Amino acid sequence: MNKILDFGRKALFYARVLSGYEERRIRSYRLQVEKRIKQAEERKLAIRKLPEQTILSEVRRMVEEMQNLNKKLEETEAAIEDYFKPLDQEAQRIMKTQLEGEERTMKQMMKTMHDQAMLDIAEEERKIKAQIVDTNQKNQDPRPNTQHLPPPP
User: CB 3.0–4.6 Å: which of 14, 16, 35, 146 could bond 22 by disulfide?
Assistant: First the structure.
């Protein structure tokens, strides 16, 4: 009975091969295998790109965060400058007032020094004139000075 079953199987196989059914089945199987291989390769490439994409997306996210932080920093700096602007103006006014006061004081000191120098010069001239007058009087006096001479015996 086994021989009959084997003969029947072989006959059926030959019939399928001659009709082209077996060839279509083999092609279909081959296409399915090729399709699975292609899908597996695509998944493999996607998996390989995944770390790269993850890194790139992380880098993009970090760059965006840094840009946002820089923008916030610039806004904060602008706000600080606006806040301190009146103080800076007031400090400039105070500095200007102090400089003007120092300049006035320096001018007064210069005037005082100049006046003192003029007084000193006038005093020196007066002394010199007094010496000249004293010298002229000594030269004009024909009498000898007897006050310093010892008394006669």
Answer: 16
Look up residue 61 and give its two tokens: 């996210």
- Is residue 16 within 8 A of residue 22, CB to CB? The reply is yes
Give the residue numbers spanning the domain of 55. 2-134
Total domains present in the chain? 1
Place of tokens 């103006």: 89
Residue 145 lies in a domain: no
Q: pLDDT tens-digit profile of 37-84? A: 999 999 888 888 878 888 888 999 999 999 999 999 999 999 999 999
For residues 101 and 93, the answer to whether their CB atoms sit within 8 Å is no
CA pair distance 93, 53, nearest whole angstrom: 59
Q: Which amino acid is at 127?
A: K
Rounded Cα distance between 39 and 105, Å, is 93
- Taking the model in full, what pTM does it have? 0.37
In angstroms, rounded to a whole number, what is the distance separating the alpha carbons of residues 29 and 19?
A: 17
